[in-house]
Design goal:
60% of the residues lie in helices and 0% in strands. By secondary structure, it is an all-alpha fold.
């Protein structure tokens, strides 16, 4: 597992076996554990953080699907 800084490594170690109910955190955890190196994800997050609020998508179908997935993850679930 790659980390950009020792702070990230310490945070990851402190979170070992942590129980989290945040869907976005769960998504990033699964993405980094199973699919992409943490450094790649960190670079993508930096790129998104640098956006000024307006992004032009060149692949409309991918953009529509990405929005749908984001809405599903960020949807507030009703408590029973």
């Amino acid at each position: 597992m790659m980390f950009d800084s020792s702070d990230e490594m310490r945070a990851a170690q402190a979170a070992t076996d942590a129980k989290v109910e945040d869907r976005l955190t769960t998504f990033f955890y699964l993405l980094m554990r199973n699919e992409l190196p943490t450094g790649v994800v960190a670079e993508l997050v930096k790129e998104v953080e640098g956006c000024n609020g307006m992004t032009v998508y060149t692949a409309k179908g991918v953009a529509v699907y990405a929005k749908e997935l984001a809405q599903r993850l960020l949807r507030v679930e009703k408590t029973q």
